[in-house]
Amino acid sequence: MKSFNRSLRACSILLSVVFLLHGCTVYKGSVSLDEAVQGEKKVKIITSDSDTPKEYEKINLIDGEYRGIPKRYSQGSEEVIDTSKIVEIKEHDKTLSNIISFSPLAIIVALGVILFTNESD
Q1: Is the dihedral of CA 35, 36, 42, 45 positive or negative?
Q2: Domain ranges, ordered by start, for the chain
């Protein structure tokens, strides 16, 4: 019974790690605004006037103005991006985000198989 409790405790800890890492978004190095428009990916813009970076689903170039669709609570509205205050633009790295999100799940499954096959012996 004690080994079952240890197994259950280990699985619950690993499952909580999966829930914590599930929503992780990884951003890679700095890109220019033109690259962000062409890439049509999520971006994070760090500005000099704000402590918190702004995340955008996509950036468009309309009539010479850069406009971003906010990641959260967008409802189709676009914000004009002030290019003079931009410090850095980071582009979403989908591959690394998927690896970080799903690797704990793979570890849990592997440990579960190992733990439960050892208990039956």
Answers
A1: positive
A2: 1-25+94-121, 27-92
- Cα–Cα distance, 119 to 121 (Å, whole number): 5
Going by C-alpha positions, the residue among 46, 74, 39, 75 that lies closest to residue 60 is 39
The reply to whether the predicted model has a pTM over 0.70 is: no
Amino acid, single-letter form, for residue 39: G
Tell me if 45 sits within 8 A of 86, measured CB to CB: yes
The mean pLDDT of the chain is: 79
At 76 the pLDDT is 64
Q: Report the CATH number of the 27-92 domain.
A: 2.30.30
Say what the pLDDT of residue 116 is.
75
Ordered DSSP codes for 69-99? EESSS-TT--EE--GGGEEEEEEE-HHHHHH
List the 86-92 sheet strands across, edge first.
27-30, 86-92, 43-47, 54-62, 65-70, 79-80
Q: How confident is the model at residue 72 (pLDDT cuts 50, 70, 90)?
A: confident
Beta bridge partner(s), residue 47: 86
